[in-house]
Here is the input.
Amino acid sequence: MTTEVRVPALGESVTEATIATWFKKPGDRVEVDEMLCELETDKVTVEVPSPAAGTLSEIVAEEGSTVEPNALLAQISEGAAGGKSADAPKAAAPKKEEAPATGGASVDVMVPALGESVTEATVATWFKKVGDTVAADEMLCELETDKVSVEVPAPAAGVLAEIVAVEGTTVDAKAKLAVITEGAGGAKPAAATADEKATDAGPETPTLRKDVEDAPSAKKAMAEKGLDRDQVQGSGRDGRVMKEDVAKAGAAPKAPAAPKAVDDSAREERVKMTRLRQTIARRLKDAQNTAAMLTTYNEADMSGVMGLRNEYKDAFEKKHKVKLGFMSFFVKACCHALKEVPEVNAEIDGTDVVYKNFVNMGVAVGTPSGLVVPVVRDADQKSFAAIEKEIAELGKKGRDGKLSMAEMQGGTFTISNGGVYGSLMSSPILNPPQSGILGMHKIQERPMVVGGEIVIRPMMYLALSYDHRIVDGKGAVTFLVRVKEALEDPRRLLMDL
Here is the structure.
């Protein structure tokens, strides 16, 4: 019996992915839920588990291929490692026999398939240097496109004779990257290893790299930080190094630069932006250029929320097994205000305005790799406890790098809390295609006039950035006033006022 392995759900707005790494090869035995390969989209990395136990009989989509949702990736023959699995090694055998048969022939290393809409890439890192012995399918370098990182394996065993495109070079989809001379290095691997040991006097790590394929993002991070594979302790399956492992290992110490008279360049470090970071920068700028973005401000006296929270936080945590924070109050206050001003919860689609009769609240979360925005779905229908639990779970997933595409798609409005970092006031940028985002800030005690007297109150500045194409100034101000009123008298939320 044959089971198909297909591309899993990638999210509403994601239409394609690139095969980053296969962790199994045809003929390998696989178990249920064992990781087969890793896909990369323009937002996240997606792991593909095995849907059944058996033998990987065929890989349909090779590394570097661009695939659509539900596309066929591979075939698994269920049961014992027989039948089709026996044919797999035969299919791979000619590749291994070519090197000694041709002896000394040159093989070009070309840019692999980058995907339909990708026309160029940048050579990010070379993991081999000229003169190094390489094995067939051993990783030579890594390319970066505006969507994903692409690994380039060696097409044959031999010696890396020439590197045509050095690091930092921009290449098109059909460019030549390097040249491998077959046979010389592949015929005497033991001697080559001995020579390398005598020259480098370093630890013997190639075997480990062949046996366990590290995450592509981890390889890139190690290269950027100048870390060797043996300097990082892997926490993934079979000791596989993940991106967070590289972050924990820290950067390797750098030798101090020689001082130069009246020249600060020796104290500077120039690092080329990754293609992914360039894409993020471009999209944020596109949001500014496309939307008629405007920000309106107000401030809220947080005494009411703080008093209610202090009064009930112990009983709340005892009953619901989660702490009562400020975020649930803001989510509920925004849901309340969005019902009165629905255009802030809408989006533009061509010449149409799409009004959402639900609230999927995006909550910005800081992680080691940057800011992510998981979504609390149907937040307007959920209780304080349900919202707090979901935010806590999504926040933990975000910090652990385990958020799925589905958990970051479909938001209709976003809350960003810059106050946790000490921000007193800011103008948040829209998260397209959404038309509104609320910025929370630091709670700071300030003198306020209350009933003709000056008193000290815990105040927070609120900022609403909105798309002026569909949200008028009156609607934006009304929304922010309703949020302010709900926060200053949280009992209004319970009475739907």
User: Anything to note?
Assistant: The chain has three domains: 2-88, 103-194, 291-495. Residues 303-320 form the longest helix (18 residues).
